[in-house]
């Protein structure tokens, strides 16, 4: 069986595992607002699924996304989730001989999209205290070459949870503008940040903002997101969209309803996930060698460093997997630094975090000295 089929079969088993605690995918498991459920039920009862959606998305949804970002004058192109937006952007903006620059760690798939069209990929390491786990604008400037076509910035960073300051965004934008490059600002985790600055407000002419409903609204399985940019860039993207018959009507109805209740519902989700981060922080304080290098995190997850405790991330992940708790090994995000950490999602019921922390001393002890080869996802 091909490696992709093996990975898919393994994930299929995870999805079909009853009572699995999903602490590894940054998914949001908060109970949905009734208005979101009702919007989907209403769409099904009206049998809207017989028709195609507008190719750029429902106008109400497009306007709602722009309003949520506060980017008046920009345009939104609804997609089948943020990763589809990234695929579309990379395949439209890049070609053979172009250069794509991002950080290490970063979200890996856009690098694969860039390489698939013949572009080269350069990563700037940001993991470690020496880098403060963030991208210094001067290091970006040093990495830029005449071939640089796209700079890809995940902000807040996945998996680290660091967020750029306003002054950092200002400086990064100046570097990208001087190079005449595009800036893809992946803001998937923006809603969880303590503070966040949109690069599009500084560099409107060539910034593409990636928007997702998977994380803040918990619609990961429905696949709905958007690219937001100036109208000229959106016009360029609409020439050959991967979903030219429109994204799922059911998903868009859920997203519209979500935007309508966001101010009422989301603050509770945010408070709970920040509480969950504190519980993890308290739990590791009594276990020598474990550390949270970025705390508090600006995402709905934390990075838990394990190398100081003398255990491998894979051994810890495998131990929890046997208890039907999914966390993620660092190698999923970065082969360079993946031996140092695991990632734990926090936008989940507090009972799940309590289960995770109660087991932590036992899991650490059992993982010591193991070189786990269990199939992980």
UniProtKB/TrEMBL annotation:
Q: Name one GO biological process term.
A: amino acid metabolic process
Give the Gene Ontology MF terms in alphabetical order.
Answer: L-aspartate:2-oxoglutarate aminotransferase activity; pyridoxal phosphate binding
Catalyzed reactions per annotation: L-aspartate + 2-oxoglutarate = oxaloacetate + L-glutamate
Q: Pfam families, alphabetically?
A: Aminotran_1_2
NCBIfam families associated with the record: PRK06225.1
Tell me the organism: Microvirga alba
Question: EC top class, in one word?
Answer: transferase
Q: Please indicate which superkingdom the organism of origin belongs to.
A: Bacteria
Q: Which UniProt keywords apply?
A: Aminotransferase, Pyridoxal phosphate, Transferase
Q: Please give the start and end residues of each transmembrane region.
A: none
Work out whether the entry's keyword set contains Phosphoprotein: no
Entry's family note: Belongs to the class-I pyridoxal-phosphate-dependent aminotransferase family.
Q: Per its record, how is this protein called by name?
A: Aminotransferase
């Amino acid at each position: 069986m091909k490696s992709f089929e093996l990975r898919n079969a393994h994930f299929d088993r995870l999805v079909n595992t009853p009572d699995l605690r999903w602490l590894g995918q940054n998914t949001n498991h908060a109970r949905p607002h009734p208005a979101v459920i009702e919007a989907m039920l209403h769409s099904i009862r009206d049998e809207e699924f017989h028709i195609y959606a507008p190719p750029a998305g429902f106008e109400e949804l497009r306007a709602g996304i722009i309003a949520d970002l506060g980017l008046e004058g920009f345009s939104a192109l609804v997609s089948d989730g943020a990763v589809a937006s990234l695929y579309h952007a990379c395949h439209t903006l890049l070609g053979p001989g172009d250069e794509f620059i991002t950080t290490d760690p970063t979200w890996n798939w856009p690098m694969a999209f860039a390489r698939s069209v013949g572009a080269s990929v350069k990563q700037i390491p940001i993991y470690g205290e020496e880098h403060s786990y963030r991208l210094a604008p001067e290091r970006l400037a040093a990495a830029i070459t005449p071939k640089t076509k796209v700079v890809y910035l995940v902000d807040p960073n996945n998996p680290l949870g660091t967020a750029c300051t306003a002054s950092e965004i200002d400086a990064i934008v100046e570097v990208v503008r001087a190079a005449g490059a595009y800036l893809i600002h992946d803001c998937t985790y923006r809603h969880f940040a303590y503070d966040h600055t949109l690069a599009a407000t500084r560099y409107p002419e060539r910034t593409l903002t990636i928007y997702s409903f998977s994380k803040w609204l918990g619609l990961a399985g429905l696949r709905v997101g958007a690219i937001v940019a100036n109208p000229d860039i959106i016009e360029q993207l609409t020439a050959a969209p991967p979903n030219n018959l429109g994204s799922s009507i059911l998903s868009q109805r859920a997203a519209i309803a979500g935007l309508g209740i966001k101010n009422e519902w989301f603050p509770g989700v945010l408070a709970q996930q920040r509480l969950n981060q504190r519980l993890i922080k308290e739990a590791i304080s009594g276990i020598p060698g474990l550390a949270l290098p970025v705390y508090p995190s600006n995402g709905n997850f934390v990075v838990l460093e394990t190398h100081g405790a003398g255990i491998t991330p894979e051994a810890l992940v495998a131990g929890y997997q046997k208890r039907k708790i999914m966390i993620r090994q660092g190698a999923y995000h970065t082969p360079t630094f993946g031996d140092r950490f695991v990632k734990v999602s926090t936008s989940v019921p507090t009972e799940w975090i309590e289960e995770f922390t109660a087991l932590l001393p036992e899991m650490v002890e059992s993982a010591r000295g193991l070189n786990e080869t269990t199939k992980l996802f």
